């Protein structure tokens, strides 16, 4: 049984081939880091796995269900209901407070504001953010903002969390703190995680590392 899987995925942007037959399978609760050179297709693979991009050929599966054949609207509902996302930086809504940002996926799922804020609050203690609930993103450090983004990615208890360079904008110590919290929270929740990073120290937090080269997943390294 796999949680997230790409089978022989091919995708080009016009004349530019990004994926040339990429295959990867992630087990439920597993944390996998996608590594590889710049331009090798890491982000494109992540976006395919997360139902953001649709492959030209090949298949994407989530929880035993094929998702690349869903239409745009169905994929958008799947992303909203089952997936969490953390990107490099700058993805908090600046007009909202930190706790409103964390509550956002719940509000989008139709939860009432008071209930969503109540669900959001324990994440501040869990991610070492106590006291920062009412700050806006401009009043947070990079590491704090990234932990708020992580809380937002996990608050709706997604089946899978997709993270693209989640520590890319942070110094190495702050990046390691964020990874530590990402891995421990995902393990507590049993969340499957797929993350893209070019940083070997970040990848070392994963259960398994896969290397993408020239649009193919061509090496497996046990962590
Ligand atoms: N939206 C796009 N339009 C056109 N070409 C794209 C687009 N996105 C990616 N590409 C191209 O597809 C290839 C793979 O890109 P991708 O972003 O997946 O690589 P990556 O391994 O994540 O790179 P990096 O580590 O530099 O972020 C590259 O040649 C890139 O230029």
From TrEMBL:
One of its GO terms (molecular function) is ATP binding. SUPFAM superfamilies: P-loop containing nucleoside triphosphate hydrolases (SSF52540). Residues 4-223 form the ABC transporter domain. CDD domains: ABC_MJ0796_LolCDE_FtsE (cd03255). The keyword Transport applies. Gene3D superfamilies: P-loop containing nucleotide triphosphate hydrolases. Keywords: ATP-binding, Nucleotide-binding, Transport. PROSITE patterns: ABC_TRANSPORTER_1 (PS00211), ABC_TRANSPORTER_2 (PS50893). This is ABC transporter ATP-binding protein. It comes from Micromonospora halotolerans.
């Amino acid at each position: 049984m796999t949680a997230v899987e790409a089978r022989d995925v091919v995708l080009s942007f016009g004349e530019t081939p990004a994926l040339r037959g990429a295959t990867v399978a992630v087990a439920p609760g597993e944390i996998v880091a996608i590594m590889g050179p710049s331009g090798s297709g890491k982000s494109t693979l992540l976006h395919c796995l997360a139902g953001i991009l649709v492959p030209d050929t090949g298949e994407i599966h989530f929880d035993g269900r094929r998702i690349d054949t869903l239409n745009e609207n169905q994929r958008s509902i799947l992303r909203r209901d089952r997936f969490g996302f953390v990107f490099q930086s700058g993805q908090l809504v600046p007009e909202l407070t930190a706790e409103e940002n964390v509550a956002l996926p719940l509000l989008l799922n139709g939860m009432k504001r008071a209930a969503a804020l109540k669900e959001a609050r324990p994440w501040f203690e869990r991610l070492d953010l106590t006291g920062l609930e009412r700050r806006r993103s401009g009043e947070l450090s990079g590491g704090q903002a990234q932990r708020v983004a992580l809380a937002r990615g996990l608050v709706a208890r997604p089946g899978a969390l997709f993270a693209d360079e989640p520590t890319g904008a942070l110094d190495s110590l702050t990046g390691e703190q964020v990874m530590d919290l990402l891995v421990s929270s995902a393990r507590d929740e049993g969340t499957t995680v797929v993350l893209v990073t070019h940083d070997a120290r970040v990848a070392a937090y994963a259960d398994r590392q896969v290397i993408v080269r020239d649009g193919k997943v061509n090496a497996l390294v046990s962590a």
